[in-house]
Amino acid sequence: MENEFYAAQKTKPDIRELTIERGLGYPSDEELLMLILNKGTRECPVEQLAHKAMKVINTCNSEDLVERLTRIDGIGYAKALALAAAVEIGRRRNCYLKSVITSPLDILPYVKHFSLEQREHFVSIALNGSREIIEEHVVSVGTSKRTMVHPREVFNHAVRVNASGIICCHNHPFGKCLPSREDMNVTSRLLIAGEVLGITVLDHIIITQDSYFSFLEHGMLKKSVGKERSPEEWQMQEEIPGDGHPQNDHSPNDHPLDGHPQDAAIFE
User: Fold this and answer.
1) Closest by Cα among 196, 191, 176 to 250
2) How far apart are CA 53 and CA 92, in angstroms?
3) What pTM did the predictor assign?
4) Which of 6, 67, 117, 249 has a Cα-to-Cα distance from 241 of 20 to 30 A?
5) Three-state SS for 173?
C-alpha cells in the first residue's frame, strides 16, 4: 500500500515544475496552497488538503484563521502559520485594496466566491470617503436558508476601520436570487443604524452562482422611517409579484444599467 501511495503521487503532474516553467501566474489558488503545503498525508493527498484549506481561507476572518486551519487533519500549527502568513501578505498587497467602487457591478469580483458556499454568508465591505475598499469582513455564517445578522456586528467592524460607507452582501445557496421579507427588514435595520452612526449603507447585494440582485439598482435603499417595512412599504419603482419578491434579478455578466429600474445605479 505504501509503495502504491507514493507511486500515485509521482504520476501526478508536478505543479512545482509547471510553475517554474510557466510562472507564478499559472497555478490556481489551490495549487498555490499545494506549493506552500509541499505534501499531504497518507490519508489526505496534498490536493485534498489544499482544497480543504482554501474553503477555510475563503470563509474565515483573519483572527480565527490559524485555529480553523489546525482543525483540518494533516495541518499542524507550522503549516497553518505558513498558510496564514501567505494570506496576510496577499491581503496587504491585494489589488482590491484602494480599488474605487462606483457601482454594484464593481464589487462582484470580490464577493463572487461566496456564491459557491452551501451556507449563507453575510459579508460587509468597508469603504473610505473616496469609495475605495478598505477591507472585507465575514459578519456571520448561517444555514443553507438563512443567517442571523445584527447591526452591531456589521457596524462594529466598520467603525474599527474608520469606514465612511459599507456594502453588504450575502449569498443564496439555493433558490432564486431575490430578497426575502427578512432580507428587506435586515436592510431597513442597517439603514437606521447607518444613519445614526454616520456610516452610509451604499448597497445590499444578494448573489447566487449565476446571478445577483442589488437593492440600489432596484430603488430599494429609501431613507429609513424607523421601522421594519413590508415589501409594499419599500415603494419600489417596479411591480412586486404576489410572493413579495421584486422582479429583475440578473447575471453578473449583464451591464448594471441594462434593463434596470434606475438609469444610474452609482454610489454617491
Assistant:
1) 176
2) 20
3) 0.61
4) 117
5) coil
